Amino acid sequence: MNARRRRRARRTGCALVLALVVLVAGVAAVVVALARSHPSPPAAERCVAEVDGTKWSLSPDQAQNAALIAAIGVQRGLPARAVTIALATALQESKLVNVTHGDRDSLGLFQQRPSQGWGTEAQVQDPVYATGRFYDGLVTIAGYEDLPITEAAQAVQRSGFPEAYAQHEARARAWASALSGWSPAILTCRLHDADPAAASADAVTARVQRDLGPLAVAPDATGALVVDTTTLGADADRARLDWAVAQWAVAVAHPLQITAVDVADQTWDRATTTWAPASGDPLPAGSVRITLAS
Question: Which of 154, 179, 204 is the last residue of a domain?
């Protein structure tokens, strides 16, 4: 009798184990089916300036606006401190987004007010004009390079909350250092796949010349575009200015469908997201290569 009970218990146990295996397999099949029908969303697109192990991130839209602000500073021959002040100001005023609204009649990247003489509504919403007006004001401030961010920005902006600019100083300094070329290979972007149908050599040329001035842009034998930086700044600063243009190109890779940027002996690749040694010969000083999706 006891033996019969033991055999019955073993059969019951085996049945339970089999049922459990079937249940687990069924749950796994459901999970796989759901994963296939509802794949995980792609990772968020971000651009990062990393300094001393700290990553200061911006969205692609913020990054392209930061690139414009810095490029205009570089084009004017302004120091990185001016770019830092401008970026901290725009981060506070608009979160580095060219907004169409604000406090009272404040508009654009720097929340400039037409009623206070900054320009027309259309002008202050033009990032090139707005950035130029900010720098026009900044360079009139005696000793602005040595002033705290709050004082320099407030002297231009006349904000109701002048102390707020200081909270953005570290992020602004990291991005200014990258986009002015003082810190090579620290600016990277993680982006979704580029769209070849949206890539345009003409758009790249127009953007280079809008942000950085009348630099020559021409295709090379590979079909990539080479930016001639030799008319930008002094020859003594050539390596730094090449890196300024290269990291500018990474920061605008999202809207321009850029897949790779080459400068000196380094390459930023959209697929790997990082800077790494180039596989071919180094580019000569005074040139930056931009490869578009194709």
Answer: 179
Whether residue 1 is contained in a domain is answered as no
Q: Strands 266-269 and 258-263: what pairing?
A: antiparallel
pLDDT digits (tens, 9 = 90+) for 183-217: 999 999 999 999 999 999 999 999 999 999 999 99
What span, in angstroms and rounded, lies between the C-alpha atoms of 265 and 134? 35
pLDDT tens figures, 88-122: 999 999 999 998 876 677 889 999 989 888 889 99
> Which domain range does residue 165 map to?
56-179
Instruction: Please identify which residue in the block is written with the tokens 């830092």.
Output: 84
Backbone angles phi, psi at 191, to 5 degrees: -130, 160
Contact between 230 and 239 under an 8 Å Cβ cutoff? The reply is no
Last residue within a domain, chosen from 145, 179, 213: 179
Give the type of residue at 260.
Answer: A
Same domain, residue pair 169 and 115: yes
